[in-house]
Fold this sequence. Notes:
- The complex is a heterodimer of chains A (247) and B (227).
- With 247 residues, chain A is of the alpha/beta class.
- In chain A, 36% of the residues lie in helices and 25% in strands.
- The relative contact order of chain A is 0.17.
- Chain B is mostly helical and 227 residues long.
Amino acid sequence: xxxxxxxxxxxxxxxxxxxxxxxSKFYGHYPALRKIKLNIERGSTLALLGRNGAGKTTLLxxxxxxxxxSEGTVRIxxxxxxxxxxxxxxxxxxxxxxxxDELTALENLTIFAKLYGLENPEKRARQWLERVxxxxxxxxRVREFSRGMRQRLAVARAFLHQPEVLLFDxxxxxxxxxxxxVLQDLFANAHKEGRTVVMxxxxxxxxxxxxxxxxxxxxxxxxxxxxxxQEMVNDPSYLxxxxxxxx
Amino acid sequence: xxxxxxxxxxIASKDLRSEFRTKEALNASLAFSIVILVLxxxxxxxxxxxxxxxxxGLLWMVYAFAGALVLNRSFAREVHNDCLDALIASPAxxxxxxxxxxxxxFLLLMMVEMLSLPVFGLFYGVHxxxxxxxxxxxxxxxxxxxxxxxxxFSALTVNLRLRELMLPTLVYPMMIPALMAxxxxxxxxxxxxxxxxxNMIWIRLLVAFDVIFTTLAxxxxxxxxxx
Lengths: 247, 227
């Protein structure tokens, strides 16, 4: 199954944003993922759906280069995911916020701006703090922040280097209203700017509003993939009922 | 190459800043060193001849155990909030990540060693400043050996529940050649014997140990972190 390349990118002969070719992952003998094959077109927003333990996080970790596939390959913009140039193109936000509690908001973002080789790292960090509404507390330590503020800072870290591919694992979980609004705004802008977003989520309503494409994983296998339809927006659980293992 | 060193320095300065803010590893390691040196002095009340024989051994046993406290924190610090994932996903190479952590750990360990040396001198009546710079060079070579192996194994054991136990269990057997060299050299230097002739073999061993294990650690760190 695959999400077809857009006519423009296919005609230009460009590789899709992500090519997942026969990816399997085994933990011992247990297959967490089985022969996942999926191409994700540039500029699309893919909602990766599935029940707990279906394999969404495992797949996202492989896409982000945090774990190696037992079988198969993943290519981002035609290149291996662990290549340095590829990692410049990826922004990742996992379950954790990936920020250091004992450092300030500004220090945290500046460190990552330096690791991504950005020019004027501190200036870039300040710009993003302003964008997510944390500029007033830039010198406050992350441990003193509320959960919502930490999440907004984590989102800023993921977007800091303007990645072409955004990989988000449960981005809306435990967010406050303000953080959800910031994230939705950033996703909408990312889509306008032609960035590719892959997000795993249980929040079907938010996911369906943002997604252009949908993939459903069931017990490590790809059960469905295709464009998001109006039917899915109107009834977010439609996909589980129709293609899920338990109906 | 520039980006390697830039990333390594970013990681090192981040680790040092975090450590100086919390002082978790530094306080524990320094307190451990001083307490063991003082207790040993009171428990055995060694004569100056006995001290001349075991000074290097005692110091390096203390440094090795104190070092484990610093090294354990190195990657454990990255587990909280899943910070390690963000570092692995960044363009910084695994080698730069390891090197940055090694530099931070090395500086912290050297700091503990330098602060506990005067305590050792005071309680054991040893003139430790007689060949100070040569002693510092030997401490640096030994500390780098401990740091590079310890940091690699810190990455390997970071997700284990018994990592505090596993790290020393894995590190000390591998450290035996380097510990033998540093213990012998430190004993000689504290006794006022200059490093010449026969002792040079221990210096060569230490340098070779450092080069080989640094190369091996850089070669394996990507596999250790990503699988």
